[in-house]
Amino acid sequence: MTAIKICGITRCEDAELAASLGAWAVGFVLWPRSPRHTSLDRVREIVRVLPASVEPVGVFVDPTVEEVRAAVDAGIRVAQIHGNPPAIAVRMVRAVHLAADGIEPAVPDDTVLLDAHDPVRRGGTGTTIDWQRAAAVARTRRVILAGGLRPDNVGEAITTVRPFAVDVSSGVETRPGIKDHSLIRAFIAAAQAASTQGTYGIERT
Predict the structure, then answer these.
(1) Does the residue 169 lie in any domain?
(2) Fewer CB within a 10 Å sphere, N or C end of the chain?
(3) Model-level pTM greater than 0.85?
(4) Domain of 83, in residue numbers
């Protein structure tokens, strides 16, 4: 079963719906320059209503150790890092993009988030990537596939790439940070219908 992450969460009702429909993770953007940025106080509020089976993921750009530590204290269990990872003992997923001969940065990580390259917005752009090339990456490591996914294309993306997980943000929104519940339902239903059998979940350490 392909895992599902709903990112750019800013409201309890959106996180609760995603969890009730079987989402593996919800993402909180903790980079102040993002239109989906949310506060640690809001993270605490939302994490309290999530079942233990749902992973709260903090999304960072070049974070400091102190920023990640504060997020962990607020309930974040996985750090999604765009840019340079800090030296801190926390589960991390690094964001990468397609390069001519693989991915950039060329990290050795077993699990990566593969997204469209945008050095300014760092994600949430609504831009799809080359799924055939993404499939080649997914054959060698666990890929969390992001970039322009929507209810009407996530099934094809899963069938083509066979990723560990799919990650959606703008594709289920009415505006940045505000999710459309009908789109969340449609996205999760389409992803689940297209999913192949298997195990998923980032190993706890």
Answers:
(1) yes
(2) C
(3) yes
(4) 3-93+150-194
